[in-house]
Every structure is written in structure tokens, then in C-alpha cells.
Design brief:
- By secondary structure, this protein is α+β, with helices and mostly antiparallel strands.
- It has 4 domains: 118 residues, Schlafen, AAA domain (Methyltransferase, Cobalt-precorrin-4 Transmethylase, Domain 2); 65 residues, no CATH class; 168 residues, Heat Shock Protein 90; 69 residues, Winged helix-like DNA-binding domain superfamily/Winged helix DNA-binding domain (Arc Repressor Mutant, subunit A, Orthogonal Bundle), CATH 1.10.10.10.
- The strands form 6 sheets. The protein has a 6-stranded mixed β-sheet with strand order 14-13-17-18-20-19, covered by helices on one side. It has a 5-stranded mixed β-sheet with strand order 1-5-6-3-2, covered by helices on one side. It has a 4-stranded antiparallel β-sheet with strand order 4-7-8-9.
- A hairpin with a 5-residue loop joins strand 13 and strand 14.
- The longest helix has 15 residues.
- The relative contact order is 0.08.
- InterPro entries: RecG_C_sf, Schlafen_AlbA_2_dom, Schlafen_AlbA_2_dom_sf, WH-like_DNA-bd_sf, WH_DNA-bd_sf.
- It comes from Sphingobacterium alkalisoli.
- This is Winged helix-turn-helix transcriptional regulator.
């Protein structure tokens, strides 16, 4: 549908905005990426600084562009089109909503919108996005080349017994019936979840690498496990307990009180989340690193496209397990209490333990969590310290950047741009100025490092 309306041009490109000076294949790529993410709009006739340069439009031009978009996309995209004049220059606005059947491709290639850029999707990402669309998941599919001979019936019985202890009225009597009831087997075929839950032999698909570090570069102990994912929960917890501190608090009671360095229930929740939501189609491994002052967990597989870290922290999201069958079994044996409450519980457990909330962020193609062993200075005290130190030395925008960094040392320039209300390029310019003034330092690489206010 073509309409003539008056719009304003956003200040900068974002998760839902793209600027193009002319109509070209990159316009269609952006529309595909928006359709595969949260929807968005492409402003044709606008440069990357948000300045209207105009575009020449003939009688049939826009209709030809629409036909080209439909021909080059699958399923065919039909965006909304608006044409208007901005400061004497003609601008064409193409907009699309989230597409109901995903992913959408451009000439057989798939893209998704991440921050203010279009990213090519991997085969695994394409498969996961399609499975979510049809309300299924990879772990429900049958495992090629493996049969019930490749799983341990002792492990099946152990899990079945755990389910029966929680629900004595379950209307099945044997482990074999349990496997069929849960759709884990069909004849001799086994699902991907069945293999990961009950594998007879170690498998690289479930590998978790764990290390105890004296410093960022000196490792004191390392263990790699590749067993079934139910057993892995306790093996990871055993490694954590081995390498974190425990204090004995002497009281006037008959028994003294034990207090661990971290809330073990919170750590267990993070470990369970890591195992349940892992992208098992990825070639990467999950990792856990224990440092003197923190524990870092990394898991292959990003958050679902409709959920951001900000959604997690504000509890503004609907749970969307990557592996539905695994999540279902973990819930039935009591490792998951209720879908969508894990992160909220973890944050509260750490606060109740007198520790800061864990730090969550997306890194590359995975999810990163860092928990700290001692409280960080309260944000108000940190902000006061920063304000007192830099008053008169920095602009208002630079002050906003420093304040935001004190609250999240892993914050990205894209998020800073949205918070401050300026372009990402200007954020980078301001950060460089703060570095030159000796007020800010980047610790580590661009990906995986963090900010330090000096």
C-alpha cells in the first residue's frame, strides 16, 4: 500500500531504523533482517547521518521497487510504503512488521537485525528460528544414526524415579513407558533430547569446560565433562563447591552455621539455565571459569530475538526455552520450578546473600554471566564519586556516558547511543575524549572486555 504522509527522520540508525541514499539490494536485505527480528523501517533518500538527500521517483518507480522486493524474498515480503517531502527532498519509507513465518530470505540468504546492523544467519540460527515459528524445537527431532541401544536404561530409571518421587500419581509403571509418554522414543528411534539426557557414553555435544584460575592467565585446576546433561548439573556444582570458599559462623546454637562465598541455589539456577537453554547445534562448548573474585559462565546460543538483556532485567518477557523437551523433563524432576522465573530468582538470591546482582550480556553468539564475590559500591556512591571528579571537565553527554558505565561496566556503545540520544559514532567520539582526559579506560578487547571509570 502506497501512502503520502508527513514523517520526521530519526536521529540515527537503530535496531528498527536504516538509512539508504538510494534503492538497492541492501534495502531489501534490511527489510528481510527487520522481518526476521522485531520489524523496522528503511528510509530511502537519507544518508547515514540522517540527512535527507532525496531520491528521484517516476510514475512507476515505487511499484517496480515493490515488485523487486517480492521477487527477491521468500516468503515474499510486501512492505508498507510512504512517500513524503522533507526539506525539499523526496523520501520513501519502506516498513515491515515481524513476519509470522520465519525466517525470510533474500536470494536464498538469511539475515537478522542486531543493534543497528544486518547480520547473516548461520544454518543453526535459521533452523532454530524456523522451529520456534512452528512451536517446536531441535531436541524433539529424531537423532539420526542412534537408537535406544545408545542410551543408558539405568539413567532413564534414575530420572523416572525422580519424577515419581515428585508425582506419585503418575499413571505409568516402567522406564520404557516413561520414554514413550514423554515422546523421547519411537520404536528404537530416540530424540535429540533423549540422547542428551541419557547417553550411555560421553559425547562432545554436551561438553562443559571448567577452570579454576588464580588470575586471568594462571589456571590452577581444569576439568572437562561430556556426560548426560542431568548428571552434569551435579558435576558442575561439585566443581564450584570445591573451588569457592566456605566460612563457619559460630553461634550459640548446638550447630554452627555454614556460609558459602556465593548462594549455591543461585549458582545452581544459573547452571540449569545454561544446560537447558544451550544451543546444542553449535560447535562451541559451555564454559565456567572461577576466579578469586568472580565466576564467569558462557553458553553457546544467543537470547531469542524477541528477548533482550533489558527485558530479562525488567522481568518484561515471556519464557521461550530453546530446548522444549529438555526443559519439560527438567521441570518434571524439579530442576526448573517455573518457566520464566529463573533470572528473577537468581538476582534476588544474590541480593539476599549480600552480593551484587549478576551481570548478564550477549557476547558474539552466546550468553555471558558474571557473578561477583563482594558488593560493588552502590550506584549512588559511584555516581557521586564520578560527578565530583569530572564536574567542569566534561559535557552533559559525557557525564551521562560515565554515569551509565558505572552502573554497567559491560554496556555497549549501541545501548549508550539509545540512552544518551545521540548516534553511535558520536558515542565513540565522546568515549575517545574521555579516554584522552584520563577519565575512562577499556580493559580487554572490544568483545569480551569491560569499561573502567578512572
Amino acid at each position: 500500500m502506497i501512502e503520502t504522509t508527513i514523517y520526521t527522520i530519526p536521529h540515527h540508525e537503530s535496531e528498527k531504523v536504516e538509512f539508504k541514499t538510494s534503492f538497492q539490494d541492501e534495502v531489501i536485505v534490511s527489510l528481510v533482517a527487520f522481518a526476521n527480528a522485531k520489524g523496522g523501517a528503511v528510509y530511502v533518500g537519507v544518508d547515514d547521518k540522517g540527512v535527507a538527500k532525496g531520491v528521484s521517483i517516476g510514475k512507476e518507480t515505487v511499484q517496480k521497487w515493490l515488485n523487486e522486493i517480492k521477487v527477491k524474498t521468500q516468503p515474499a515480503l510486501v512492505p508498507e510504503v510512504d512517500i513524503w517531502e522533507h526539506q525539499g527532498q523526496q523520501v520513501v519509507l519502506f516498513s515491515v512488521a515481524v513476519y509470522p513465518i520465519k525466517p525470510v530470505s533474500f536470494k536464498g540468504k538469511y539475515y537478522k537485525r542486531v543493534s543497528n546492523a544486518n547480520h547473516p544467519m548461520s544454518v543453526a540460527e535459521v533452523a532454530q528460528m524456523h522451529l520456534r515459528t512452528v512451536n517446536s524445537s531441535w531436541d524433539y527431532f529424531w537423532r539420526n544414526g542412534l537408537t535406544t541401544a545408545d542410551i543408558s536404561l539405568d539413567k532413564v530409571k534414575k530420572v523416572f524415579d525422580m519424577v515419581r518421587r515428585r508425582n506419585s500419581n503418575i499413571p505409568i509403571d516402567t522406564s520404557e513407558q516413561f520414554l514413550k509418554k514423554q515422546e523421547l522414543v519411537h520404536g528404537k528411534q530416540i530424540s535429540n533430547a533423549c540422547y542428551l539426557l541419557f547417553c550411555k557414553e560421553d559425547t562432545y555435544h554436551t561438553t562443559i569446560q571448567m577452570g579454576h584460575f588464580a588470575s586471568e592467565t594462571v589456571i590452577k585446576d581444569d576439568v572437562t565433562i561430556s556426560t548426560d546433561i542431568v548428571t552434569e548439573v551435579e558435576e558442575v556444582m561439585n566443581f564450584v563447591r570445591k573451588h569457592i570458599n566456605k566460612e563457619i559462623i559460630i553461634t550459640d546454637q548446638l550447630e554452627n552455621t555454614e556460609r558459602w562465598q556465593y548462594p549455591l541455589e543461585g549458582i545452581r539456577e544459573l547452571v540449569v539455565n545454561m544446560i537447558v537453554h544451550r544451543d546444542y547445534m553449535s560447535g562451541g562448548h559451555s564454559t565456567i571459569k572461577i576466579f578469586p573474585d568472580s565466576i564467569v559462565l558462557f553458553n553457546p546460543g544467543p537470547l531469542p530475538d524477541h528477548i533482550t538483556v533489558e527485558n530479562l532485567l525488567s522481568d518484561d518477557y515471556v519464557s521461550s526455552p530453546r530446548n522444549l523437551q529438555i526443559a519439560k523433563i527438567f521441570k518434571e524432576i524439579g530442576l526448573i520450578e517455573r518457566y520464566g522465573t529463573g533470572i528473577k530468582r537468581v538476582r534476588q538470591l544474590f541480593l539476599n546473600h549480600g552480593l551484587p546482582e549478576p551481570l548478564f550480556k550477549m557476547v558474539q553468539d552466546g550468553f555471558f554471566v558474571r557473578v561477583l564475590t563482594s558488593p560493588i559500591s552502590g550506584s549512588d556512591r559511584v555516581t557521586d564519586k564520578v560527578t565530583g571528579k569530572v564536574t567542569g571537565k566534561v559535557t552533559d553527554n559525557q557525564q551521562k556516558i560515565l554515569t551509565a558505565i558505572t552502573k554497567d561496566i559491560y554496556i555497549t556503545t549501541a545501548i549508550l547511543a539509545d540512552m544518551v540520544g545521540i548516534s553511535q559514532r558520536k558515542i565513540k567520539d565522546n568515549i575517545q575524549t574521555l579516554k584522552e582526559k584520563g577519565l575512562l579506560e577499556r580493559i580487554g578487547p572490544a568483545k569480551g572486555g569491560y569499561w573502567k571509570v578512572l
